[in-house]
Amino acid sequence: MDESREDRLDDLVEMQLRYLRGQGPPPDVRGLNEDERAEVLGMLEIVEALAGSLPAAPAFEEDPVASRLGLVDEHTRTTHAEVAMDADDPVQMSLRELAARFDENALRIERLPEPLADSAGNHAHLICRSLAEAVAVVVFETDRPAVEDAAPLFRQRPELSAVALCSTEATQATVVTPSELEPCLVPSIGWCEPSDLSWEPLGIALGRHFERSMPQWDRVLRLTMPDTLSDVFSDAAPIVEAELDKVARSRPQLAHKKSARDFVARSEMSVITDIVGRVRARQLPAEELTRELAEMCEAAP
Amino acid sequence: MTGYDDPLAALHSAWCDGTASDADLFRALAGSMRRSARRAVDITLLERPNEEDVDEALTIAFLELLRNGPGVVNQSLRGLANKIAYRRGQDVARKLIRQREQIDNIRWELEAVTPTAADEEEHERLERLYEQLEECMHELTDAQQDVINSVVRGQESLSDWSSKRGVTYEAGRRMQSRALTKLRDCLTARRDARQ
């Protein structure tokens, strides 16, 4: 195929991709002869068949739609996923120790239905799940993988929050998040490429990662509720006074509005300030507030 | 009948007999329905689809398929399922557009899915093509597989893909072109072998 024809075909393929992503019109194949049109349409059809086919559908037991439809019972899901720990596997033992550090069921170790592969040919068979995290554990045998080797796993399983790269002995490990695969902009420096990885034992590297994201419920429970509205009461008096003064100076024309103005003008500022304080302190529910205001209106001359 | 065999004919029969469970149907159809729904959301929403939106479209589509029952299938169960998933993907995308633009006073009619044999055949044909292409992916080099998976099957732009791999955009484009040409040649070879 000559170069110009090849370039034209590449342009049409790019147009087709943009069209299938809703970013442009469909490719224009007018002006092509019959042979060219057949070739182009065949290629565009291939692009259409492939476009958007990743990420792949999750396994049945892990498919959120299957769960939502009630097609997967908890027993099937658990049985399929639970890992029978191999005591001879340092990685699995390290993960089990890590899970034991947290509250019961806060960290679950599951076996992936199908292994995931990084671009260096290493595989992940296990996934660690917590409330907010799903971390695949990739085990490498010899050479340490680079940070970009984890990219295919995030493409295959977008729900992964991180990938742990770990040696077979679990002595060298690091945790990679999707953001670390991208260059970042540091205002004082400029664009920075993904940084080099730091390596430490699996329990430490992964443990630190989960500790950052695991909710600290016990600390939340020990917090005292601050009284953030404590100054409102002292501020209420001048605010009420200003509003009452505004109403008293108004000149309504309608009779019922004049009555309302007169009622407000005669009201004791201390009574209204007291109501504001009790509402703020949640001592006056809505029904009682309505009743009190109604009684005030009825009692007014 | 247009002359092709429905690969899920046995499942369709079991569904008609009442011996196929909903889970059996889901297992067989979820993958292709999800791809169809994602394609529809992608092309309608003008942006990368959120998988939760695709999940929603798939859920609605599968329930609709169950509700319609096996009797509405003309000739391809999978073609019908994909057609429904595509339409529901469009609906989910339109609903999102409506919400974002707060268009409450315009009534967007849900497109009624009136299954036709032509619709089923079109979606079945696309799904078969996809299956053959999946098999042909093994003929590509690692780099060619990567560009197809990232740029064509995924949502990465060719310029981003090239930049990450430290090659020029033109080099990335040539890689993509060669990969697609190899896939096309593989398909042609398989068709010729079958004839």
Q: Biggest interface, and residues per chain?
A: A-B, 42 and 47 residues
* Uncertain stretches of chain B: none
State the end-to-end CA separation of chain B: 21 Å
Number of beta-strand segments of chain A: 7
Work out the helix count of chain A.
12
**Largest sheet properties of chain A:** 5 strands, mixed
Compute the average pLDDT of chain A.
Answer: 82
Tell me the radius of gyration of chain B: 19 Å
Q: From N to C, what is the helix and strand string of chain B?
A: HHHHHHHH
> What characteristic shape of chain A results from the CA principal axes?
extended
Q: What's the story with the biggest beta sheet of chain B?
A: none
What does this structure look like?
The complex is a heterodimer of chains A (301) and B (195). Chain A is α+β, with helices and mostly antiparallel strands and 301 residues long. Chain A has twelve helices and seven strands. In chain A, strands 1-2-3-4-5 form a five-stranded mixed sheet. A two-stranded antiparallel sheet of chain A has the order 6-7. In chain A, strand 1 and strand 2 (123-129) form a beta hairpin. In chain A, helix 1 packs across helix 2 (34-50), helix 9 (232-248) crosses helix 10 and helix 9 crosses helix 11. Chain A is extended. Chain B contains eight helices and no strands. The model of chain B has no long low-confidence stretch (mean pLDDT 85). Chain B is flat and about 55 Å long. The interface between A and B is large, with 42 and 47 residues.
Write the layout of secondary structure elements.
The complex is a heterodimer of chains A (301) and B (195).
Chain A: H1 3-20, H2 34-50, H3 64-68, H4 74-81, H5 90-101, E1 108-117, E2 123-129, E3 134-140, H6 151-156, E4 162-167, E5 173-176, E6 184-186, E7 190-192, H7 202-213, H8 217-222, H9 232-248, H10 255-266, H11 269-280, H12 286-299
Parallel strand pairs in A: 3-4
Antiparallel strand pairs in A: 1-2, 2-3, 4-5, 6-7
Helix pairs in contact in A: 1-2, 5-7, 9-10, 9-11
Chain B: H1 9-17, H2 22-45, H3 51-68, H4 77-101, H5 117-136, H6 142-153, H7 158-164, H8 169-194
